[in-house]
Amino acid sequence: MTLIFRSTLKTSLDEQAQDELNQTFVAVKGFLRIPGDADLVWILDRSDPDDNKILARIQGIEMISDSNGVVLEGSNTYKSLGFDSADYVRQVLSNPIQPVWHEKRDPSGVKYLIRSSYVVNESRTRKIYVAIGISLAPNNKLLTSFNWLVLALIPLAVVIGMATGWAVAGRALEPVMAIARAAQRISGSNLSLRIPERKAADELEYLVETFNDMISRLEQSFIQVRQFSTDVSHELRTPITIVRGQLEVALFTAQTTEQYRDAIVVALGDVERLSAIVRALLLLSQAESGQVVLQLQPLDLCETARNITEQFEIPAEGAGVEISFHTRPGNCTGEFDRVQIERMLSNLISNAVKFTPPGGLVRVHVSRVGDQCEIVVEDTGQGIPPEHLPHIFDRFYRVRGMEEQASPEKGLGLGLSFVNWIVKAHSGTIEVKSEQGKGTTFTVRLPFRPHLPNVSNSTHESVMKAV
Ligand code: ADP
Fold first, then answer.
1. Does domain 2-139 have CATH number 1.10.3210?
2. Is the pTM higher than 0.70?
3. Second CATH level (architecture) for the domain 296-465
4. Protein residue with least CA distance to atom 19, ligand 1
5. Distance between CA 220 and CA 213 in Å, rounded?
6. CA 360, CA 346: separation in Å to the nearest integer?
7. Pocket of ligand 1 contains residue 9 by CB under 6 Å
8. Could you tell me the end-to-end alpha-carbon distance of the chain, in angstroms, rounded to an integer?
9. pLDDT score of 442 more than 90
10. Cα 450 to averaged position of ligand 1 atoms, centre (Å)
11. What atom of ligand 1 comes closest to residue 399's alpha carbon?
């Protein structure tokens, strides 16, 4: 850039010098007369200061010679540069391209630009060689100053550029540093922290939003994991404490084999319940982490639901509850996992029977609704208080006080978590409506083929049966 600028400056100064010499030559032609062979007459008004000035300019650096190089008029300055040789004069006079430009140096090294040309006498018989010059010292001085200026400015420009670059980069990177600082503060114990949003519609804002979304998902997973560990330790601690207490009491108080036997039987019952919880949890966590996959096969949901309902007729009768199955015309055959569907129906129907007092009704209704199969399990039982409804699908969630009234056998609080997973795994939806004292209705809707890919995995099914 600097080089281009310097070369443009030099060209412009050279052109300026050439223009000046061209104008001077025009003045030469205007003022110079050559009446005889060797006579030169300057026609001008000596009393006019302008004319005198022009003549002084012409004669400042000038050489006028005849065609053989014999100097007719020459200034001292031109003499110091060295008058042009006869050969050079002849060469210029014979050169059709006029003027001829060349440079000369005086003894002190100062450069001059010389314009060589000729004028013809009035009778047009002779050519008179005219060379005029101009000192290039001011131009060279200007170029030298320019060089020095550039030399001084380059480091300054580099320093200013670096400082500006540093400042601009610093400002541009500030949000990135803020993100990094915020990210450093976020750890497993304070996942509620978020990177402040800048409200600027740019890529960094998008990065901040993406990052915050990721932290939200992580926080959600952490909460679930924490909740899971709390639930598990709470659920396992109680039966373990009971078993331990029973065995200690037996150890210190039992005297007969019969008493030892009774204590062991009771403890074994609790150990059974413990292993049921562990198996159920294992399966549930495998299911929710995607390790249990559906084994799909053509299945008539009407038929399946009718069979399961029939299996509950005897327990329902024992509980004084009337159970019935209903359907509407329409094919309910689709691709389902038989074991999981049976498990889902068993959980829903057993809850309905369990939480319905004697004299109540349980109705199971299966029908085709559009491109889905609808399963409704409804009871006229005690219902679920509204504040508990959002939580009944959570692991280990049981409505306090209800179970004790409903059944002497305490549930694990995992049944509906399984139901929820089975419905989701079949790409379906589940809905619950309940009114205290009036009853509860669970509505499951399943497409005739789940949208998810599935792989056969029979090893988990036997565990599922145990829940
Ligand atoms: P549980 O093993 O205790 O039955 P679930 O996960 O199946 O566990 O159910 C969770 C809780 O939801 C039950 O403890 C009960 O309080 C409530 N519940 C489920 N189904 C019904 C129902 N049909 N009527 C009333 N309450 C119900």
1. no
2. no
3. 2-Layer Sandwich (3.30)
4. 351
5. 11
6. 18
7. no
8. 82
9. yes
10. 26
11. 16
Structure tokens at 77: 């300055």
Percent of all residues in the chain with a pLDDT value above 90, rounded to a whole number: 40
Residue with the larger pLDDT of the pair 319 and 182: 319
Interval 29-57: pLDDT, tens? 888 888 776 678 888 787 888 888 888 88
Whole-angstrom distance, CA of residue 378 vs CA of residue 308: 15
Which segments of 70-202 does DSSP mark as H helices, in order?
A: 76-81, 86-94, 137-185
Look at residue 122 and give its three-state secondary structure.
coil
As a whole number of angstroms, the distance between CA 323 and CA 15 comes to 113
What contacts 44, CB < 8 A, 6 or more positions away? 31, 51, 52, 54, 55
Q: Is the pLDDT of residue 58 over 90?
A: no
The pLDDT score that the predictor gives to residue 115 is 94
For position 402, what pLDDT does the model report?
Answer: 59
Distance in Å, CA 396 to ligand 1 centroid: 10
Would you state the structure tokens that stand for residue 249, as one six-digit string? 């009491």
- Contacts by 313-321, CB closer than 8 A, 24 or more apart: 315/350, 315/353, 316/353, 316/362, 319/353, 319/354, 319/356, 319/358, 320/357, 320/358, 320/359, 320/360, 321/353, 321/356, 321/357, 321/358, 321/359, 321/360, 321/361, 321/362, 321/379
